[in-house]
Structure formats: structure tokens, C-alpha cells
Amino acid sequence: MAKTIRVNETPLVLYTLRRADDALILGHRLSEWCGHAPMMEEDMALANMALDLIGQARSLYTYAGEAEGGGRTEDDFAYWRDERGYRNVLLVEQQNGDFARTILRQFLYAHFADLYWRAMMASKDATLAAIAAKSEKEMAYHVRHAGEWVIRLGDGTAESHARIAAALEDLWPYTGELFEMDASEKALVDAGIAVDLSALRERWRANVKAVLDEATLTTPADGWMQKGGRTGIHSEHLGHLLAELQHVQHTIPGAVW
Amino acid sequence: MSEGREERPMPASFPPAGNEPLLARARAVAATVCDPEIPVLSIEDLGVLRDVTCSADGSIEVVITPTYSGCPAMNMIALELEIALEKAGFDRVRVTTVLSPAWTTDWMSEEGRRKLKAYGIAPPSEKRAGRGALFGADEVTCPRCGSANTVRLAEFGSTSCKALWRCQDCREPFDYFKCH
Ligand SMILES: [Zn+2]
């Protein structure tokens, strides 16, 4: 029986896994809607966005395996790390809740990822720059799609407004972590490999606020922010998600389609 | 969203240089493989086929690039390339995937655009400079009657590369191959 792996987290490996985990976990969350969305078009949209994110995660995990140099594959990282080994931000593991909450989470992340991947196209790491060039085009569609829904729900009925306003209030404290950087990441910024996330924050806030204004929603003030995911300290939701994501591989290790 | 999107021309080694018969035959075979989701388009029409090389020992390497990061057709395309080349007598075949430069709908051939339209899928809008090109969808014409009076029904369609539109004149819904 295969066992949980211990990753040699060099700065580059850790950096790549953090981005890969964000994409995989959010992609998995969106895939939970498959067959449950409020209408057929939205079912397809959520599944398509999930596919984009899981595709990005696959490229990133493959690269993490190359950077680690131990012959590990994308599947090793996805299936054989436990909750404490995952490095995603807490925002992406939060439960879907209702449709408004799912869309708002997507909106907050997509606006970040859009700016992030566009900046990463200039990375000195050729592989990360190549993944960035593909990802930024995909995220541009997520930004537009999620934004259209935020406006429709916020500027919709009293019920839809109340739901998305509640989601905004609950999820905002998870947005600070998107811009967190530790010493290992700052060293990569200095080397021209990583992006200085603090430089993206004002722009992100302005882009998000422009849509929230149109949606008649009030952009929350930045207060106390939740964090921990980047170092493996997660909310109670990730363990449940991983139990489902990893179930088949843990039951029948090495199973393939 | 004002940054310019740089032009990404096809790599210099494409189309084939030189007249090595084995290589030319391998290229011709590789170019016949079709997209499993849009079977009227070959991977050459799509711009997914990036290079074919032949080593001194006669082994063939085919280089492809994905359309979207999560495109599930890539595994199928790689498998079909191996099968097609093996059937043509090439017994040492390797298919590799490259991500850079990133695929763009600008690489779709004129022939590919024509075939798409004949198949009932509106081809991606013509090249435009800048990030606005991604959302050039405002100029989509109906592949059935040619009307420009069309409306987007859904941003995400039956595959990653398509959106769902409807013609306001002939009332037919149709797929639109999104700019990318
Ligand atoms: Zn028409």
C-alpha cells in the first residue's frame, strides 16, 4: 500500500505546489456542482471552469515533480499528501454553500489569478511563464463570467442581494491570504521567478470594487484576515474534500481509467 | 485590461524545411489526425501540431501543444498520433507536449476556419491586437445564414473551446469557437 509522501519543499517546489493546490482544490469544489447547478448552461460553465483549473494544476504538479527531481508525478502530489501537506489558500477550500457563495468565491479568486498569471508571464522561470501564458487567458473568461453573475445577483432581487452580500461578508476575511508572502517566496521574487504579490493588491481591490459597485454591494473594509493554508494549517473543510478526492486511490492504489 | 497581447507567429520550423522523404511522410501522416471533439478539423488546421522531427535512427518525434490547459482531447490526440504513425510503418514514435508559446486561435488555418463554418461552428473572430481580442465575440456571425444579428446564450459551451450562441434572424442556436 502506497503511503503519504514527504515532499522536499525547496523554495521553487513549495511555490509551485501552492499555486497547483489553489487550482486543484478550487477546481474540485466547482466540480461538486456537476449535475446540481441551477440550470444547464451554468452546470456546463462551472464544469468548464473546473476543467481549466484542474488542467492548470496538472501542469503545475508535473513541474513541481521535475523541480523536486525525485520522479514524482502529478498524481503523487494530488493523491498522496494529507491535509497538512496541502498548501492552498483557505479561500478555495471553503464550502460551495449556495450558488451565490460559489460564484462570489470564484469572482474573488479569478480576479486575483487573472492579475497574478498576467504578471507571471514575465517570470524568469520558463515553465512557470509558459503555464502563466495559458492560465491568464483562461482566467480572463472566469473573471467575466463570475462578474456577470455577481452583478445579476447583487442588483437582482432582495433575496439574491441578501445571499451574495452575506457571502461577501463571510469570504472577505479569506482574501488577505492571497497576497501573503513568506521569506522563501520573497527570495524567489528577488530572483525574478515569483511575482511580488503586494504589488497586485491595490489593483485587485480596484477591479473587484468596480464590479461590486455595479452590483450595488459594499466592498468590505480589510479587517482581521484568516490565514494558515500556505503552511498546511487548514479549515475543517479540506479534510472532507480530500477524503473524496483521494478515496479511489487510497482504496485501490495505482488504479487507472 | 489594457496590456497588449504579443503576436505569436508559428515557429520557424513549420512548415517542413528540406525534402527528407521519411520526415515528409511522417509529417503528412501526423497532419491527418483530427480533433476528436471537432472531427472536421485536423490538428494541423487547429495549430495544435507544432513540429515533427526524425532522428538518424528513424524514430519520429511529434510535438503538440494543448488548446486549453484542461483540454481532455490531448490524451486522445497523442494516442491517435501514435496509432496513425504505427499504421504507416513508423514503429518508434514519441509524442511530446509543449506549453510555450501558448496556443492561440490566431494559428487556426484559413482552411480550418472554412471547415468549421461549413460544419456549423462559427470560427473565432479575426485577429485583433490586445487583450480585447479574447472577447472579440461581439462580432460573431451565424454559420447558417451569415447574419451578424446574434446573441450569446452561454459563455461556456459543450467543450472548453466553445460558447453557445443564437442567431436572431434564423433563430438557430450554434456553437462559437471562442477566441483564445
Ligand atoms: Zn442565422
From TrEMBL, chain A:
Coiled coil: none annotated. GO terms for biological process: phenylacetate catabolic process. Pfam families: PaaA_PaaC (PF05138). One of its GO terms (cellular component) is cytosol. It comes from the Bacteria. InterPro entries: Aromatic_CoA_ox/epox (IPR052703), Ferritin-like (IPR012347), Ferritin-like_SF (IPR009078), PaaA_PaaC (IPR007814), PaaC (IPR011882). This is Ring-1,2-phenylacetyl-CoA epoxidase subunit PaaC. It comes from Mycoplana dimorpha. The lineage of its organism: Bacteria, Pseudomonadati, Pseudomonadota, Alphaproteobacteria, Hyphomicrobiales.
Automatic annotation (TrEMBL), chain B:
Residues 31-87 form the MIP18 family-like domain. InterPro entries: Fe-S_Maturation_MIP18, FSCA_dom_sf, MIP18-like, PaaD-like, Zn_ribbon_PaaD. Residues 133-178 form the PaaD zinc beta ribbon domain. It holds the Pfam family FeS_assembly_P. PANTHER family: 1,2-PHENYLACETYL-COA EPOXIDASE, SUBUNIT D-RELATED, FE-S PROTEIN MATURATION AUXILIARY FACTOR YITW. This is Ring-1,2-phenylacetyl-CoA epoxidase subunit PaaD. It comes from Mycoplana dimorpha. The lineage of its organism: Bacteria, Pseudomonadati, Pseudomonadota, Alphaproteobacteria, Hyphomicrobiales.
